[in-house]
Every structure is written in structure tokens, then in C-alpha cells.
Amino acid sequence: MICTKKKNMAALIKRVAAAALVIVLMVAFGGCSSTKGSKGSTGSSQQQAADSLAQAINSGNMEKVMKAMLPDKAIKKLEDESGMSLSSIASMYGAGSFEGVSNCKITVKEKQDIDKDDVESFKENAEENLGVSVSDVEMREIEMTATAYGSTDTATGDAIFYKADGKWYIIPSDM
To answer: Cα separation of 11 and 75, whole Å?
Structure first.
């Protein structure tokens, strides 16, 4: 029974990270959108960006999750191009993603190697698709701990941290 709970928790953590990534990719490259005048939930450090994402996950609010991953400028551009609101996207792609999840905590760990060409490609895509000038990109190992349906588990994976307009944003890339 305990083994099953741990497997279910690990699967849930993976689904949370995957849902967040899918939304960002859909928004960035699929022409979806978000709200006007929304404020990004980020920080001046990578850990603050991770904390903002964890708080958004704990709230169960997919709109906040997207704001933790995308700068205001990107949200505005995507909204203008698609005519869709952040709440529309959140309801389409995020319904139920965080059901039963609480006490999420994300800890930023070691810096990972990232190919220089991948960094340049990320920066170019952010500028072209999101209208955002990215000043820095790093791949970091993260550790995510969360409680789902009463069972707590921890998973590690990588996340892309990128800096735009002086603030760090996070995109979990594998969990």
C-alpha cells in the first residue's frame, strides 16, 4: 500500500510538472494567450522564482502557474495575438492539474551544463515568439516535494531558469 502511494505521488508530481511545461509550450509556440495587465510571480533570484511557482501550485490556480513562468510582456503579446484570456487557457489546459496537491516546495539545486547553442536558440525563440528579451538562461537541478491526497513525496529533475526584465522565471523541463 505504501509503495502504491509513493508511485501515485511520484506520478502526480510528474503530471504537475508536465502540465506546467505543456502550458508554457502551448502558450509560447501554439499561439495561445493570457490576461491583460497580469503581474508575473517571479523574483530577483532563481529560488524566488521557484518559490513563486510552488506557491502557485499550492493555490491550485493555473493562471498563477503561468504567471510564474512567463513575463508580463509575453502574456500581453500572446493575448493580443490570440484574443484569448489567461483564464480561458488555464481552464482548457489546467483543469484538475493540481487537485489534491498541497505543501509543494521547490528547491533550486546544482547548475547543469547547457549547450551554448541551446541558450542562443532559447533567447531567439523568446524574442521571436514572446517578444521578450532574455538576458540569461541556466539549467538547474530542482527538487520538488509535495503532498497529494495525504501522501508526501519528493522528486528531482531539471528546470530552465531565464531572466527577462531583471526577473527570473522558471520552466520545469523534466520531472
So the answer is: 29
- Burial degree of 166 (CB within 10 A; 0-12, 13-18, 19+): exposed
What values do phi and psi take at 163, rounded to 5? -110, 125
One digit per residue, the tens of pLDDT, for the chain of length 175 reads 444 444 444 444 444 444 454 444 444 433 322 222 233 345 689 999 999 999 988 888 888 888 888 898 988 887 788 788 888 877 776 656 777 788 899 999 999 998 999 999 999 999 988 889 999 999 999 999 998 888 899 999 999 999 998 999 998 876 5
Cα 121 → chain centroid: 19
Distance CA 17, CA 116 (A): 25
The span from the first CA to the last CA of the chain, in angstroms, equals: 23
What's this model's pTM, rounded to 2 decimal places? Answer: 0.74
Alpha-carbon gap, residue 3 to 20, rounded angstroms: 26
Angle, in degrees to the nearest 10, between helices 2-30 and 72-82: 70
As given in the structure block, the three cell numbers for residue 131 are 517578444
